[in-house]
Give the backbone structure.
Amino acid sequence: MVENRPYRDLMAYLVLLMGVVIVAFPVYLAVLGSTFDAATISNGNMPLLPGDQAGINYSQALLSGGRLAREPVSMMMLNSFIMAMGIAIGKILISILSAFAVVYFSFPFRKTAFWIIFITLMLPVEVRIYPTYKIVADLGLLDTYAGLILPLIASATGTLLFRQFFMTIPDELLEASKIDGAGPFRFFKDTLLPLSITTIAALFVIQFIYGWNQYLWPLLITTKSSMQTIVIGIKKMITTQDALTEWQIAMTTAVLAMIPPVLVVIFMQRLFVKGLVETEK
Amino acid sequence: MAGVTLDTVRKVYAGNVEAVKGVSLGIEDGSFCVLVGPSGCGKSTLLRMIAGLETISGGAIKIGDRVVNEVEPADRDIAMVFQNYALYPHMSVYDNMAYGLKNRGTPKDEIEKRVKEAARILAIEPFLDRKPRALSGGQRQRVAMGRAIVRKPQVFLFDEPLSNLDAKLRVQMRVEIKRLQRALGVTSVYVTHDQVEAMTLSDKLVVMSGGQIEQVGTPADVYRRPETRFVATFIGSPPMNILPGKVEGPGRVSVGGQMVNVTDMREGLAPGSAIEVGLRPEDVQAGTTGNSTLTMDVDFVEELGATQLFHGKVAGAEFVVQASTGQLAADTRSLTLAVDPQNVHLFDPQTTKRLGRQI
Ligand SMILES: Nc1ncnc2c1ncn2[C@@H]1O[C@H](COP(=O)(O)OP(=O)(O)OP(=O)(O)O)[C@@H](O)[C@H]1O
Ligand SMILES: [Mg+2]
């Protein structure tokens, strides 16, 4: 805005600040909680400055886990990481390939194929949970990474995103490739893929977080505690009987659970921007 | 090197749109052939069929002695320059030019030699490491040309390659394309809707309309002896004036009662029958010399710098005369136009075909 009214600016900052406080305070509390011992947290008067128990809490959480979750958080994080990576990479692979097929090849029932993919938007795991569970169980994939990952990979969102992007690439680029002697696979590898980097980065961020935050599906198909993910771990740590909950470990685990998504966003954002700067349709 | 032969080539798009209706054409080895016509006349479609980007619905296309109907674009030994250049945005200029050669398994040092050579010819050596995004329109155009010439193809295909450039650059690139084609001696097919481009570039000019060829010839032929009214009004700027007239006798027609002598007139036309009289704006002289003249009422004058265009009416029909600036007073309200019998074109009002002497 061109106007320069200090009072208005002040108001804007106040509102922004309130928003930040509302969002950030619980996070701060979690970080705070991970630095005290159980007694300090449970007496109800937690100080607003960090305590000195961080080292003990984090090493306990990472190496041995709590009384209730039984597995070390590092193991849960590894499980979550494998699942989130698997889902993100799998989704990107499948959706970029199906979008490639739908946009660049004409085959019978191409439109139908696209619409079927599109309709699955209405069928997230939660809706198809019973049949999906049945199939995964019949295939003997309970308590495996494949069982965790595969059912969540099919992605209409990704296919749609790539399709929209491919449609903005001028046809002449494909035609020039044809004349330059590049077959469909070469065109995909040499032209489409490099041009899609930004889209891939964006999708990766979204899907990694989606995978990392999965709760219902892993809860259903993992029974061994060695396969549990961090989100489930946190849930297990917080029991209804407040006295049994090791709040300092739960808080520590929550903080640990936040780190990988944050790292992915930070790392991918750089790639994202780099992609934006370097390529252009 | 090879020529291109089209034999009753047809293209029917989905939905029964017949875009090309049986075109036969021979393009000699090493010549520069320009396809010109109004928007939607099927010239791009024809070119894309030669390139192999569009299937051929009927007839045959030969490059050299080989029928290429079923041959993949990459195997036709052609190179194409697109209107929007279609450079690979993520590759450097060097890689853009090298890509086709790489895909063919050309040895690295050979690729380098050819790309450097093309870059030198086109004066784009300083840009080899840049991405297309960092180039001006004219430079991108050159890269697109470079990508075509490194391939050393049998045939160059151009689809309106200059239409995204500004007027000045277009003239400059036009000259360059012509020079390059002469130097390389590669058979070229060039599509444009700009008749000036068409006239200046072509050895062989093909005027198309509605999916068919209207006329084929050298630019001078097409300009001097248009075979149909369409060609007459399409080639030449400003376009030829067409006046309604009447046959008076051998070598004589009348326009609104004024007699006009004609050199090139079909024998045996029945006196009194209707005929269309074509006169180019630059072919009539404002003056009273000669025995065949027309009078014109002037409405307004357009200034073009070196010349002026006088707009008005002759015998009730729109008429334009081109004159050197200063030759006529700008406030002239009425003109007497001397018509050289050599410069009169006659057309049949029904068939719109030329009614010239049979040759
Ligand atoms: N893919 C297609 N499907 C159906 N009809 C098409 C298709 N491509 C072109 N046409 C039609 O074919 C005709 C010729 O098209 P073409 O692109 O060859 O015209 P053009 O002479 O190149 O025109 P312009 O100067 O505007 O580029 C047009 O009437 C167009 O509508
Ligand atoms: Mg066209």
About this structure: Residues 167-184 of chain B form the longest helix (18 residues). Residues B 13-14, 17, 19, 37, 39-45, 193 surround adenosine-5'-triphosphate (ligand 1) (CB under 6 Å).
